[in-house]
Amino acid sequence: MRPFALSYARPAVTPSTAAPYTYDAARQLNVLPDGRPATSSRAVLLATGTTASTAGSKTHFDD
Fold this sequence. Notes:
The chain is α+β, with helices and mostly antiparallel strands. The chain has helices spanning 42-48, 55-59, and strands spanning 22-24, 29-31. The termini are far apart. Pfam families: Strep_pep.
């Protein structure tokens, strides 16, 4: 029996550009090369864009 998800899974694509930040597991956030949080850089925020979940507002009437 083949799991349903494997029928539609796609291979991961390696990005062609490098992100200007790295993940710091100890601090649990993305940091710039100088150690500042990546969110403190306006250029990084503009270049990477943002995402927001709307799942709560679509599933709960009181959100």
